[in-house]
Structure formats: C-alpha cells, structure tokens
Amino acid sequence: MINRLEAHRDFITWVIKRLEAEGIACERTTGNSSSGDILYYNAEDELRVKEIVRQINSEYNQ
What we know:
Elements: H1 2-21, E1 26-28, E2 38-40, H2 46-60
Antiparallel strand pairs: 1-2
C-alpha cells in the first residue's frame, strides 16, 4: 500500500512539473480534496491538461 501511495505522490509531482513547463498554472491539492489531486486555474486549460496526462500514461503504461 505504501508503494502505491508513493508512486501516486511521485506521479502527481511529475504531472505538476510538466504542466508548469507547458505554462499551465496549477498546484497540488491537500488532504482528500474533492477537487482531485491537481488544481488548475483556467478552464481553458482543461483539454491540454487531459492530453498531457494521456501522453504520460501512454508513455509509461505500454
């Protein structure tokens, strides 16, 4: 269980760094936020955020 939590934590950190590199303002949520793990501020960024997450998943889940 600890390994899964650490992997999730590391994945979220990596996604946030990638989003920031793409110019998307975001931050990690705290606790068990109903907003999910990452909060981004512009609704216009939603499609790009989803695309980046899909790219990361496809790279590492082959």
